[in-house]
Amino acid sequence: MDTPVVGKPWFNARRYGIGWRPVTWQGWVASGADNPAAIAISVVLLVGLLALVCYLTGGKPGPLRPGNDDQTSPGAK
Q1: CA distances from 33 to 10, 24, 74 (A)
Q2: What would the pLDDT profile of 49-59 be if each residue is shown by its tens digit?
Q3: DSSP H or E run through 11
Q4: What's the CA gap between 21 and 18, in Å, rounded?
Q5: For site-directed labelling of 60, which of 18, 27, 34, 43 has its Cα 20 to 30 A away?
C-alpha cells in the first residue's frame, strides 16, 4: 500500500530508529491518543460538549411526569 488514504501523509518515517513521526496537526492529534492524560482530557471535554449541546437544545431537565406539558415532544399531543 504505497498511496496514503488521505491526500497528504500524517506521518513520515523516523530519521533514526524504527517507526513514524507526526508531520501534520492531524498526526499530532492521532498520536496524542497514546497518552492516558490526553485521553482523559479528551473524554472530559467531549462529555462536557455533549452536555452543553443537550442543555442548549433540549427541554427542561428533570423527570418526565404525566401532566407536565413543558416536556412533551411536539408530536405527542
Answers
A1: 14, 15, 41
A2: 999 998 899 87
A3: strand 11-13
A4: 10
A5: 43
CB atoms within 10 A of CB 30: 13
Provide the 3-class DSSP secondary structure of residue 73: coil
* Cell digits of residue 29: 492529534
pTM of the predicted model as reported, rounded to 2 decimal places = 0.46
Residue 72: partners with Cβ closer than 8 Å, 6 or more residues away: none
> pLDDT by residue (tens digit) across 25-57?
988 888 877 788 888 888 999 999 999 998 899
CA 6 → CA 3, 9, 33, 73, 76, distances in Å?
Answer: 9, 7, 19, 42, 46
